Amino acid sequence: MLNAALAGEAGRIWLRIDDLDRARFREEYLEDIFRVVKLLGIKVTDGPSSPQDFHARWSQEHRMKNYLSALDQLRASGLLFACPCSRKELAAGRHQHGCLQGKVSLEAENVAWRINTRDLEPVLIPDLIAPEGFTVDLHAAMPDFVVRKKDGRPSYQPACVVDDVLFGINTVGRGQDLLPSTAAQAILSEMMGFGDLFQRIRFLHHPLITGEDGDKLSKSAGAEGVSGLGPAFKPEVLRATVNGWIGK
Ligand SMILES: [Zn+2]
C-alpha cells in the first residue's frame, strides 16, 4: 500500500508517502501521487519533491533502523507476542501453537510480532471534525494487529508512529477507514515511549471520497486516482468538500 499523508502547521504541508510494503509498491502509484498533488494545486513545503527525490532521501527504507529500535521498545510491554499462525489458522478463530501464552520465541524464524488486544480499553480519538471524537474498539476492529511481519520487517503501524514523531507532525488528515490504524498507533506510541509526542497530533478523519459506483477509490481495485476521474473532480470541488468537513 502506498499512503500519502498531509500534515501542516502555519502553512507548512508535508507530503509523506509510505512504501514499506514492497510487494504492493508500484512506481506508477508513486508518480500518480505527485501528479495528483500538482493537479489539486496543493502547495507542499516539506518532504519529497519528486519520485527521484523520494527514492534518494525519503523512502522508509532509509529509516529502517529507527523502526527496528522502536520495535525493540515493545518487548517490555507484556502485550507483544510471537505468532507463527497462518491466515488459515487465524481464520478458524483462534491462535494455535500457544503463541498467546508466550510459548513461541520472539527470536524464532518466520513468526509475526503481534500485540495482544484482548484487554485494551476502547480508544477515544479526538478529531477536528467530530466534536465527540471517535471511539474505537481495537480488539473488534484489528485484533492482535501485526507490528513486525514474518519477514522481519516492521508493519505500517509502528513505522507510522516513528515517522510522525521523527518529523514533528502535528496535524494528520486521513480517511475514516483508517480509524483503527490511528487507535493502534495511539496504543503503540504509549508502549514505545512516544505517548506525549503523539498526543500532540491533531487528527482529521474525513469521510471517504467515493467513485461513481459509490465504492471507495482504491488503486488495488483498479481506480486510476483522482487524475483519472475527469472534469467532475476539480481542485475547487475538493476544496469545497474539505471546507464542508471542517465547517467553513
Ligand atoms: Zn498465533
From TrEMBL:
<comment type="similarity">
    <text>Belongs to the class-I aminoacyl-tRNA synthetase family.</text>
</comment>
<keyword id="KW-0547">Nucleotide-binding</keyword>
<dbReference type="Pfam" id="PF00749">
    <property type="entry name" value="tRNA-synt_1c"/>
</dbReference>
<dbReference type="GO" id="GO:0006424">
    <property type="term" value="P:glutamyl-tRNA aminoacylation"/>
</dbReference>
<dbReference type="InterPro" id="IPR049940">
    <property type="entry name" value="GluQ/Sye"/>
</dbReference>
<dbReference type="GO" id="GO:0005829">
    <property type="term" value="C:cytosol"/>
</dbReference>
<keyword id="KW-0067">ATP-binding</keyword>
<dbReference type="InterPro" id="IPR020058">
    <property type="entry name" value="Glu/Gln-tRNA-synth_Ib_cat-dom"/>
</dbReference>
<dbReference type="GO" id="GO:0005524">
    <property type="term" value="F:ATP binding"/>
</dbReference>
<keyword id="KW-0648">Protein biosynthesis</keyword>
<dbReference type="InterPro" id="IPR014729">
    <property type="entry name" value="Rossmann-like_a/b/a_fold"/>
</dbReference>
<keyword id="KW-0436">Ligase</keyword>
<dbReference type="GO" id="GO:0004818">
    <property type="term" value="F:glutamate-tRNA ligase activity"/>
</dbReference>
<keyword id="KW-0030">Aminoacyl-tRNA synthetase</keyword>
<protein>
    <submittedName>
        <fullName>tRNA glutamyl-Q synthetase</fullName>
    </submittedName>
</protein>
<feature type="domain" description="Glutamyl/glutaminyl-tRNA synthetase class Ib catalytic">
    <location>
        <begin position="9"/>
        <end position="220"/>
    </location>
</feature>
